[in-house]
Amino acid sequence: MAQALMIDTKLRLSFEIGVNEKGEPKYKSKTIGNVKKTASADQIFEATQAIASLCNDPLVTVVRNDSFDIVG
Length: 72
Fold this sequence. Notes:
The chain is of the alpha+beta class. It is 18% helix and 53% strand. The protein has one domain (3-71). Strands 2-1-3 form a three-stranded antiparallel sheet, with helices on one face. The radius of gyration is 16 Å and the shape is elongated.
């Protein structure tokens, strides 16, 4: 039977940095590595809110990317 072994967790934070010439929002992303694999959604939310409070631009989205090795 195959198993999925988590090897890495990263967060991608997207910030709205303004608007383009058409009036559509422009975004900038920052990826943060070395995230604790066992971090809960609440812990990640609190951490990203703390990071966002240090930034000039508003935080729009947070995406958690977990990477797995599939072994059989």
